[in-house]
Specification:
Helicase, Ruva Protein, domain 3; EC 2.1.1.297; 40% helix; 11 strands; 13 helices; Small_mtfrase_dom; two-stranded antiparallel ribbon
């Protein structure tokens, strides 16, 4: 069987995928180690038996709904090619909004930035790349996730970032950080079970906050002040439906300059605010 025929047949099998053509091309490039350009120039090439077996195995995983990022162990975020596994949440394009907002602080120099719940390290590594003179700390309560984040730092040769084990702020230094960023779990249990078909392959604890979905966000906002220097900025990603309550929690904890910013789908996705300490 040649490449063109396999792509044609396989695409028709991905009836539940919104991007079947892209999916099969990605799998083909992954197995044959082709670029997209090389793939298009070699449609008539016959696929060898070992590659065909591997392609069909990976295709079956995709047919069962497993995300492409887990199948090929790769996801791009902020132009960084990250290794991902089922131990970490797959970085979403909307989360890049966090990086865009933080980079508005163009005066940052030799500051400490904290990334809570770092997962694959995507946010911490993107900020470390943007701010080479700053020190970025990423924390997670999953040892497997920390292994992935550290691997990505080595792979990308980013040296101004370090990752430690911490259950939110439990092992985080006091009065240290100028900026804290976080993409925390913000689904309720009910939200998760409504969306389980789309999320079943991703780590439950990275998605579900608790009964109401706001528990982790509230904990972060309430406790952030202990870890800021004299002035601190907190950036939190959340569900657009939580915007009102998130803003209220910010306000109740004495944050000022509170703003909620829309994502690429025109939904309010990130709320941030400033805390001035005496």
């Amino acid at each position: 069987m040649n490449i063109e025929m396999w792509l044609y047949i396989s695409k028709k099998k991905l009836i539940n995928s919104s991007t079947p053509q892209l999916d099969v091309e990605t799998l083909m490039c992954y197995v044959l180690k082709y670029s997209k350009k090389t793939l298009f120039l070699n449609y008539s090439t016959v696929i060898d038996c070992d590659s065909l077996l591997k392609l069909n195995y990976l295709l079956c995983r995709r047919m069962l709904g497993e995300p492409i990022a887990y199948i090929i162990n790769k996801k791009e975020f902020w132009s960084l090619s990250l290794f991902v596994s089922s131990a970490v949440l797959i970085p979403r394009p909307d989360t890049e909004l966090l990086i865009e907002l933080v980079t508005l602080h163009t005066y940052l120099k030799n500051e400490f930035i904290l990334d809570l719940g770092t997962g694959s390290g995507s946010i911490a590594l993107a900020l470390a790349r943007e701010y080479p003179s700053c020190k970025i700390m990423g924390i997670d309560n999953s040892l497997q996730a920390l292994s992935v984040a550290r691997y990505n730092a080595r792979k990308l040769n980013i040296n101004n970032v370090f990752f430690i084990y911490s259950d939110w702020f439990s092992h985080v230094p006091l009065r240290k950080f100028h900026i804290i960023v976080c993409n925390p779990p913000y689904l309720s249990k009910q939200d998760f079970y409504r969306s389980i078909k789309d999320l079943v392959f991703e780590p439950y604890n990275s998605l579900v906050s608790g009964k109401y979905g706001i528990e982790c966000i509230q904990h972060i906002i309430v406790n952030a002040y202990r870890h800021f220097t004299s002035i601190g900025w907190l950036y939190v990603e959340h569900c657009y439906k939580q915007t009102k309550i998130v803003r209220k929690i910010f306000k109740n904890n004495f944050f000022v300059k509170i703003s909620s910013i829309k994502d690429y789908s025109n939904r309010r996705r990130v709320t941030f605010g400033c805390l001035l300490k005496n």
